[in-house]
Amino acid sequence: MAAANVVESRNDLSLKSKANQASWVKLNVGGQIFLTTKTTLTKEPNNFLSRLCNEEADLSTDRDENGAFMIDRDPRYFSPILNYLRHGKVIIDNDLSTEGVLEEAEFYNIPSLVTVLKERINVYDKKNPKGPMKHIYRVLQCQEEELAHTISNMSDGWRFEQLLNIGSNYNYGPEEHTEYLCVVSRDVHDSVSTSAPEKQPSKVFHLRGGRN
Length: 212
Known about the structure:
With 212 residues, the chain is of the alpha+beta class. The chain folds into two domains: 2-127, 2-Layer Sandwich (Potassium Channel Kv1.1, Chain A), CATH 3.30.710.10; 133-208, Alpha-Beta Plaits (2-Layer Sandwich). The protein has seven helices and nine strands, in the order αββααβαααβαβββββ. The chain has helices spanning 2-23, 38-41, 48-53, 78-87, 98-107, 111-127, 147-152, and strands spanning 24-29, 32-37, 69-71, 133-143, 159-167, 171-172, 175-176, 179-189, 204-208. The strands form three sheets. A four-stranded antiparallel β-sheet has the order 5-8-4-9. The chain has a three-stranded mixed β-sheet with strand order 2-1-3. Strands 6-7 form a two-stranded antiparallel sheet. The longest helix is centred in the N-terminal third of the chain and has 22 residues, at 2-23.
């Protein structure tokens, strides 16, 4: 009786071992081996990886000499894909392009990840607009006592270019108030708003053009 129990126990262990082996999946992505579980790959139904490990008939299931499924894609961009399926978070190394990960997410047909990546790219593009550069000039008309404040409080990439004395057009009692034109410039993308470097009570003139 005891011998029979030992045989049954060994059989149970053998079945459990086979079940555990069946739950693990080995992938050869562009020559790099990844080991994960079938549960991870099937978290999002109908994605390429889920269908691959289920060995659906309409997918090619070539394997390498070690039995790993072979996928002809860039392994650098596969790690963020696999980690997203593991824990639902998007983690992309600084040396990787988000657009590149998006390309892979679309290839592997993972809609939720595609949505997250597109939103991230849209947010980045709004903060870092692209497009041709143009050189913007602003001419600030101010009085002599405003000069130091005007120049010292320029921000957002505005640079001082030139100061022009335009004399005085009015008097307040015995003192004469000299006025100046302060020329400033800034390089911006076409899509960026080009507001004045600082709100001034004086006149602001707008000039556009490029340097020679």
